[in-house]
Amino acid sequence: MDSDVQQIKDRINIVDIVGQYVTLRRAGRTYSGKCPFHKERTPSFHVSPERGTYKCFGCGEGGDVFSFLQKMDGTDFPTVLKQLAEKAGIKLTPRSGARVATPEQKEHDERLHDVCEAAVVFFEQKLKERKDVQEYLKTRGVHDETVTAWRLGYAPAEWDALCRHSMSTGLSKIDIVDAGFALKSERKPGAGAERQNERSFDRFRGRIIFPIFDMSGKPIAVSGRFFEKVPGAKSDDEPAKYINSPETVLFKKSRVLYGLDRARAHIRKLDCILLVEGQFDLILSHQSGLPFAVALSGTALTPEHLAILGKLSKRLVLALDADAAGIRAGLKSAHMALVAGFDVKVPVFPNGKDPADIARENPELLKAAIRTSKTAIEFFLDALRPGTKDSRAYAKLVEAQVLPLIAAIGSKIEQEQCIRMVAARLGVSDAAVRAELGKTKTRDTDVPGTSDVRPESMEPALTPLEKKVGMLLFGRSSSKDKLKELLGADYIVELENRLQPHAEDLRFRFDAEVGEHSSDEQITEDMLASIETAVAKERFKMKFL
Ligand SMILES: [Zn+2]
Q: Are residues 387 and 492 in the same domain?
């Protein structure tokens, strides 16, 4: 295990990994850039390829390539380990000791992954056999390359085509059910052999399949859009337009965002998230050159989604369905996002179209709409108007729906601007709006645990002299003898112990001191000289005070 980690660190350059998320500039022997963990204008985030570590002097975040990816992607250590091992071409040694999941659970997860992958391959194959479905996708504006890239497929309009196929390749019925691809027929619940003998049928029948991927790009679930009924099936019910995989051990709806595995790096780079409603909206946004789009998969926006997205960017563009239900859902999402510290914008699409419609007609129009998005407050002020019968009703609606949004905004300046906007719109005084706002629930009351917590700075409380000595002790260990000579061996040993928790921080500070235009020797000499002067001054004071 430990040797695996070391091997990965040896083979992978942390600069390559971090560089996918942060634009890094070489500065001497380290690289620096704007910290991805807090908002800043000037770079205080440093990466050392030599040591394989990173450190932010602004917010204190620091660690190695493993902790970096965990924090950025919101994943856990085992996931990152697997991901990096693959990248480095290292076969992980199976470990027997402590781990989160038991070997049985692990094995079960693996089998479910196999079921998902096999199902997606099966659906992909079936789509290739259906010219009419391919035609339909074309009429929706989906290019062939997009079909391939997003691994779209087709679930035949049969009761158990997937089940029969999967079982013929050796996959177990229980696993197919557990992965969410089959339903048991209504019979007694059982386990083991009993379950194996139950009749089961496919969950997705006669549907266009959109696979949903985990962060490493493996399918873990699917979303199916209705295309045709199973022949002879007698049901008067209009089938649901979309059905999604149920929650499984692999698929947690409140945490999964459709497209995030591909959008992640773009979101980070462009510092913007586009959240769309549907599967078509999502793939067509990407196809249209908006690769920072993600979609929910069969659930409303959750604080968990926002926590995952918030690590990548705090600028959120909410692309809403223009109908009343879309606006209602949008109000909720916008409120939650504002409370979580996001800057929320909403694009206006002409004539109640959705992003997929616009992308099909003209991708440039979609891009333009996203670029010219309104602030959430402005958008809802406009969107709520048509539904009201008179100005009094409108004012009431604004009070109930828009003021909570304003109350959720963290910046007082922005709040003031919004107050003025609402006052102008309603033809009342700023003071009246402000008074009403005061009665509105303040922020953080609705959605607990999503406030924008900034990590405390880890900066140790050190005197300037201690800091300087520490930088030399850890950044340039060859200077230790000289330091002992200047300050006494006991003091140096004590200080070294005391500063041990901040060793990495101090090393980065030394690197920063060396910078681009200097050398280790030069900086060490300068620092020792200044320490010597400080010591001399101290002695001088002691003598006379
Ligand atoms: Zn930072």
A: no
